[in-house]
Amino acid sequence: MTFTVAIDGPAAAGKGTIARAVAAHFGMAHLDTGLLYRAVGAKVLAGAAPEAAARALTPDDLKGEALRTQAVAEAASKVAAIPEVRAALVAFQRTFAARSDGAVLDGRDIGTVICPAAQVKLYVTASPECRAQRRLDELAAKGIAGTFETILAEVRARDARDSERATAPLKPAADAVMLDTSDLSIEEAVARAVAEVAARRG
Fold first, then answer.
1. Which residue segment(s) compose the domain that 28 sits in?
2. Fewest beta carbons less than 10 Å away: which of 6, 46, 56, 151?
3. What is the Cα–Cα distance from 102 to 147, expressed in whole angstroms?
């Protein structure tokens, strides 16, 4: 019997951090599905066609700090709106979710499209201002300059692109537990997520 945890939400809400912590706590495998789209975006920036890049994706393509750049993030959001790209990556994600030792997947359409039968569905969110500040702090820690206004505009633009696309738009599953991290510490957010999973695992 597989046990799947689906964690969705917008950029910089904390879903990746929570997903990794939940997976580690319960000894389950973790897949950051955003990396799939980042890897495709990176290939597109290098000149590949989006659908061909998605079909040729391998686990090795998901490694490397190059996937964490802002340019790749923007490219990822754009290719994620292409139905053929999403279709090509569905099988990869569902196969991962069916692991016998359990799996935690985080993304934007896990609970709604990829794993609608997941035993646990969380929707992690935070205010655009909070998420922009987090992104600004991340950049500052890496020595990269940025302004709050510019990053806030990027966050809002990406939210609109992700939630308004025709295929698998970003939205909470009807049965998802909402987790707003705006005023929570990382430890508090993780604790709430772990409690939700523990309650359903029995």
1. 4-201
2. 46
3. 40
Question: Which amino acid belongs to residue 188?
Answer: E
Which H or E element spans position 18? helix 15-26
What CATH number is attached to the domain comprising 140?
A: 3.40.50.300
CB atoms within 10 A of CB 54: 24
Task: Answer for the pair 52, 195: CB distance below 8 angstroms, yes or no.
Answer: no
pTM, 2 dp: 0.88
pLDDT tens-place values along the chain, 202 residues long = 789 999 999 999 999 999 999 999 999 999 999 899 999 999 999 999 999 999 999 888 998 888 988 899 999 989 988 999 999 999 889 999 999 999 999 999 999 999 999 999 999 999 999 999 999 999 999 999 999 999 999 999 999 999 998 888 999 999 999 999 999 999 999 999 999 999 999 7
d(CA 68, CA 57): 17
